[in-house]
């Protein structure tokens, strides 16, 4: 099926390259115009360069019912999904992409049971329901610190292996990733969301009308996640200022993911790919739950059930990271590498 997706994408891109009506809309069209033929490495690269802004679909004169039946956002989503599976390490773990809901729910359930077992072993079950302002009685600072380091190492190692696999599959050498100027430019593209603007008026998402809703929602998610992540590092020494920062980050994360979920639900389904949606929903919902339980934990500190909320919050965070190499979270790695390759190609032209 993956080969069929690549062939269909190559067919559509060849037609687009001859037409060029969408020239300048986004990085996909710039990359396309640098090529006369589209091999698997090119299609895999351009699939992850696509930000699913969809403007090309709505202005295209060759969509259905035209015999060319062009639908670039959908066919690139199909290939993008395949690249996630093809570069998963170990390879048998690719099955997780077809069972994202089951994996997420299983890890959450196991994590909650694990935290309850730790609380029971520490004789701290009562702290789950009694008013508490310090959670170290439920999970010690040493346990949180070392388990977090273990999980972070797990994610970084697997993301690195999967990222190197993808980088090689799109025809790049390892030393190319060390291009300082291109790296700086690609990181700027990531954090400034350069390609969430479509042809200038914003993404045509969730519907045909261009707007900047995604340009607002996605940064809320990214920066909210980063603020919350770095705010929690001093645990259990969470001062008032750190708690405010953590609560703010979680609130941003909740707001951003809520917006993305709403847009996903009401979006045009013609350019979407069902299997990609099956990755989007579990990942976005887990981040949403991370945000809302984080806010609840900060607001409820010192009140009844604060410990229980803390336990649930930690279980969800653990799930987000453990499933990171085997779900939508991995798009962060592949998208960055596609943007980096785009910047390298720009330097060469």
UniProtKB/TrEMBL annotation:
**Residue ranges of every copy of the 4Fe-4S ferredoxin-type domain listed in the record:** 39-71
Q: What is the lineage of its organism?
A: Archaea, Candidatus Micrarchaeota, Candidatus Micrarchaeia, Candidatus Micrarchaeales, Candidatus Micrarchaeaceae
Q: What is this protein called?
A: Ferredoxin
Recite the UniProt keywords alphabetically.
Membrane, Transmembrane, Transmembrane helix
Q: PROSITE patterns, from UniProt?
A: 4FE4S_FER_1 (PS00198), 4FE4S_FER_2 (PS51379)
Q: Which InterPro entries match?
A: 4Fe4S_Fe-S-bd (IPR017896), 4Fe4S_Fe_S_CS (IPR017900), NarG-like_sf (IPR036197)
- The source's domain of life comes to Archaea
One GO MF term attached to the UniProt entry: oxidoreductase activity
Transmembrane ranges, per UniProt, are 101-120, 215-235, 241-261, 281-299, 305-326
């Amino acid at each position: 099926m993956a080969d069929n997706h690549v062939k269909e994408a190559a067919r559509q891109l060849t037609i687009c390259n001859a037409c060029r009506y969408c020239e300048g809309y986004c990085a996909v069209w710039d990359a396309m115009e640098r090529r006369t033929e589209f091999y698997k490495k090119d299609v895999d690269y351009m699939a992850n360069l696509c930000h699913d802004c969809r403007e090309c679909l709505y202005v295209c004169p060759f969509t259905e019912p035209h015999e060319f039946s062009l639908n670039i956002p959908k066919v690139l989503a199909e290939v993008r999904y395949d690249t996630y599976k093809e570069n998963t390490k170990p390879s048998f773990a690719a099955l997780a992409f077809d069972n994202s809901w089951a994996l997420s729910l299983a890890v959450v359930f196991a994590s909650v049971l694990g935290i309850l077992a730790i609380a029971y072993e520490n004789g701290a079950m009562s702290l789950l329901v009694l008013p508490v302002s310090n959670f170290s009685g439920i999970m010690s600072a040493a346990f949180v610190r070392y388990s977090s380091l273990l999980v972070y190492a797990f994610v970084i190692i697997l993301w690195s292996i999967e990222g190197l696999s993808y980088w090689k599959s799109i025809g790049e050498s390892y030393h190319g990733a060390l291009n300082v100027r291109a790296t700086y430019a690609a990181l700027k593209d990531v954090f400034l969301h350069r390609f969430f603007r479509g042809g200038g008026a914003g993404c045509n998402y969730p519907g045909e009308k261009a707007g900047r809703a995604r340009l607002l929602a996605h940064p809320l998610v990214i920066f909210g996640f980063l603020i919350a992540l770095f705010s929690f590092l001093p645990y259990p020494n969470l001062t008032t200022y750190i708690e405010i920062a953590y609560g703010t980050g979680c609130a941003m994360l909740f707001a951003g993911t809520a917006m993305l979920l709403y847009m996903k639900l009401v979006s045009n389904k013609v350019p979407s790919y069902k299997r990609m949606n099956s990755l989007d929903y579990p990942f976005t919902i887990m981040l949403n739950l991370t945000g809302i339980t984080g806010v609840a934990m900060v607001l409820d500190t010192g009140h009844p059930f604060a410990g229980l909320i803390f336990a649930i919050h930690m279980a969800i965070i653990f799930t987000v990271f453990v499933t990171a190499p085997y779900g939508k979270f991995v798009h962060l790695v592949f998208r960055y590498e596609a943007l980096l390759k785009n910047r390298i190609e720009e330097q060469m032209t």
